[in-house]
Amino acid sequence: MDLLNDEKFMLRALELSKLALPNCRPNPPVGCVLVKDNIIVSEGYTQAPGQHHAEAQAIANYGAALNDITAYVTLEPCSFVGRTPSCAHTLAGLNIKRVVVATVDPDPRNSGKGLSVLRNAGIDVEVGVCQRDVSAFITPYLLV
Question: Which residues of the chain have pLDDT under 70?
Fold first, then answer.
């Protein structure tokens, strides 16, 4: 783990999350950065309802194997199926190496469940990187 790089990549994901507004509403504005060998290889942010979440957009933009990739996501990946598939299950099924999350989703449909899906799949999960910065931005858009 390299905290300086983790923070740098999470702050980039936070920048991306701001691009999601206003089109992502009522979904929260989330950003995702995929990193390989300390280089950003893909980025994504939440699209309009029914379209890609941040993680799915980054994966679609990358289009290669994720087994050596770290994903930086501003909000815990969703564990439930709504208008789109579960991001946590998608990441788990693609054998991603590591997922770094800024803040846990307080939505009771998720709220730690996405993290459990990832950990149960053997993925290294880190929570809390840049949490203060991300929470200051995203909290008004979260279901509580």
Answer: 1, 144
Q: Which two tokens stand for residue 53?
A: 């979440």
Q: How far apart are CA 90 and CA 16, in angstroms?
A: 21
Residues involved in catalysis? 55
Express each pLDDT in 26-53 by its tens digit. 999 999 999 999 999 999 999 999 999 9
Count of Cβ atoms closer than 10 Å to residue 81 Cβ: 10
The angle formed by the CA atoms of residues 112, 107 and 19, to the nearest 5 degrees, is: 100
